[in-house]
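wait is this the right file?? whatever heres the structure
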């Protein structure tokens, strides 16, 4: 797997609200109603990360989860980072019945 080009990264970030490039990573802070919501998000995202075999750098303080995605193998941003970011965005979307 290789890193994405700057153009590819910029195009992908257009569809990922709130995600920003920070050097060789993409980052976002998620704000939740409380600690339980934040941890629930992290638990759900962890299953997706494990399925992709691509794990985030993240930090939780009460109701905030800071996420940093990068590919250490390639030294840049890869399609795995984009896929995991998109899965995280799907987790926070309101469920429609």
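ok assuming it is, sequence goes like this
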């Amino acid at each position: 797997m290789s890193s994405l080009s700057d153009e590819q990264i910029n195009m992908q970030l257009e569809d990922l609200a709130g995600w920003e490039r920070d050097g060789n990573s993409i980052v976002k802070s998620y704000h939740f109603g409380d600690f339980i919501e934040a941890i629930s998000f992290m638990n759900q995202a962890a299953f997706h990360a494990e399925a992709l075999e691509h794990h985030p750098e993240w930090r939780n303080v009460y109701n905030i989860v800071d996420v940093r995605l990068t590919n250490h193998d390639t030294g840049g941003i890869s399609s795995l980072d984009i896929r995991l970011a998109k899965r995280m965005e799907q987790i926070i979307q309101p469920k429609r019945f």
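The first strand starts at residue 20 and ends at 22. so i think its the right one actually
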